[in-house]
Automatic annotation (TrEMBL):
It comes from the Bacteria. Residues 161-323 form the Bacterial type II secretion system protein E domain. It holds the Pfam family T2SSE. PANTHER family: TWITCHING MOTILITY PROTEIN PILT, TYPE IV PILUS RETRACTATION ATPASE PILT. Gene3D superfamilies: 3.30.450.380, P-loop containing nucleotide triphosphate hydrolases. It comes from Candidatus Eubacterium avistercoris. This is Flp pilus assembly complex ATPase component TadA. SUPFAM superfamilies: P-loop containing nucleoside triphosphate hydrolases.
Length: 405
């Protein structure tokens, strides 16, 4: 069995490095699975010179490896696991039902982990090298039940001799609002409130730290957008999706690979989105200059949604304003004034909604947004029913007279 395992490791290393183009063609459908396996078979016979009786066993083990995730396959298949973090070959941790814990899963050796990292990258048409020492990609086809988002850093930047690998699992079957209620993600009154907000005029921000549930919540609410509205969703990794909305477009970034020249970042997609006939403009997660185009869309009448990392709902707006400010000549106060059509801010903590804040307008004297807390778990505030009634009475708000240039 050791000889078979060594053979599989040898083949994997060969196709992850010297024959990466061949395996990429197979994953893209440019050559058939049968032709690729025949290519592998010739390598086993002519290069490895394996005995005839071992060839079927080597091919079987290699097939399991190349079309699956071998060592961590059971963790990927486990629906209770949302995140897999590979710290070293013998230290693989997971987030199971929202709690971090260790596992007894391990790779054979540090070298085996390095080969695995190269394989994961090659499988998704990426490469790990000095110029790609920190990489992120999404595998939509590697598992039948989950979209897998990879974040990998190599020993070139790590203070270790092996890569770090973090895998976020996004269910391909979207979690519905009713399911989120049953899971304690939100209450029934929150669901009514957010569904109303999703269909009404005004923007929405989901904020919190990484893994707090921002994407899950926003993904569920996408299906509540009225079907007669057009929508563009741009994102770094393909996590947001809808199988029911008839007029919702999805785009993702394309990053340089090594010395490659092709690059479409969120800023490019956002700029192009402003040329489209849209009602809703959604950015999966705002991290930089794309905030300026998000501001432009919001200020010119689009219903804008986004997520970002922040420690509170009010801090989220300051951070969003600073992103836009750094990409323009505006002051923070000017940006905040133009962001007043972001009506609702949802703050996530430990995979449930912890705080909901409304923006009522802009205070010219204080030069700041006017906030109203409608739900705060820690403070024991729950004004959601009253907020719904007030929203129905509020109607259209007047925009400031300032123009966006």
């Amino acid at each position: 069995m050791t000889d078979i395992r060594n053979a599989v490791r040898n083949i994997t290393e060969y196709y992850a490095t010297q024959e990466a183009s061949t395996i990429n063609k197979m994953y893209r459908g440019q050559i058939s699975k049968a032709d690729f396996l025949e290519h592998v078979r010739r390598y086993i016979i002519h290069v490895l010179r394996a005995e005839e009786r071992y060839i079927p066993l080597i091919m079987e083990e290699f097939s399991k490896y190349i079309w699956g995730y071998r060592t961590i396959a059971d963790l990927i298949a486990d629906p209770s696991v949302s995140d897999i973090r590979i710290m070293s070959h013998d230290n693989i941790r997971v987030k199971r039902n929202g709690r971090r814990e260790g596992t007894d899963v391990c790779f054979d050796s540090p070298e085996d982990l390095k080969y695995f990292a190269d394989y994961c990258a090659t499988k998704c048409a990426h490469s790990l090298s000095v110029v790609n020492a920190v990489a992120s990609w999404t595998d939509r086809n590697g598992d039948p039940d989950f979209i897998l988002r990879f974040n990998v850093s190599t020993p070139f930047v790590n203070s270790t001799q092996t890569p770090y690998i973090h895998i976020r699992k996004i269910p391909k079957t979207k979690t519905s609002v009713s399911q989120l209620i049953r899971k304690g993600f939100m209450s029934a009154s929150m669901a009514v409130y957010l569904k109303e907000k999703a269909a009404s005029d005004g923007g929405m921000i989901w904020c919190g730290k990484g893994g707090s549930g921002k994407t899950t919540g926003m993904n569920a609410l996408l299906d509540e957008i009225p079907s007669d509205k057009s929508c563009l969703v741009i994102q770094e990794n393909e996590e947001l999706f809808s199988h029911v909305h008839p007029e919702m477009m999805f785009q993702h970034i394309v990053s340089n690979q090594g010395d490659g020249k092709i690059s479409y970042q969120l800023e490019d997609l956002a700029r192009n989105g402003l040329l489209m006939d849209l009602d809703y403009f959604v950015i999966g997660e705002i991290k930089g200059k794309e905030a300026l185009y998000f501001l432009n869309a919001s200020y010119t009448g689009h219903r804008c949604w986004a997520s970002l990392h922040a420690m509170s709902s009010k801090e989220a707006m300051i951070k969003l304003a600073d992103y836009a400010k750094y990409a323009s000549s505006y002051t923070r106060e000017q940006v905040l004034e133009m962001f007043q059509d972001i009506r609702t801010i949802i703050f996530m903590k430990d995979f449930h909604i912890s705080e909901i804040t409304e923006i009522l307008g802009f205070d010219q004297k204080e030069k700041n947004l006017i906030y109203r807390t409608v739900y705060d778990e820690k403070a024991g505030i729950d004004l959601l029913p009253a907020a719904l009634e007030k929203e129905s009475e509020r109607g259209e708000r007047r925009r400031p007279e300032q123009c966006f240039n």
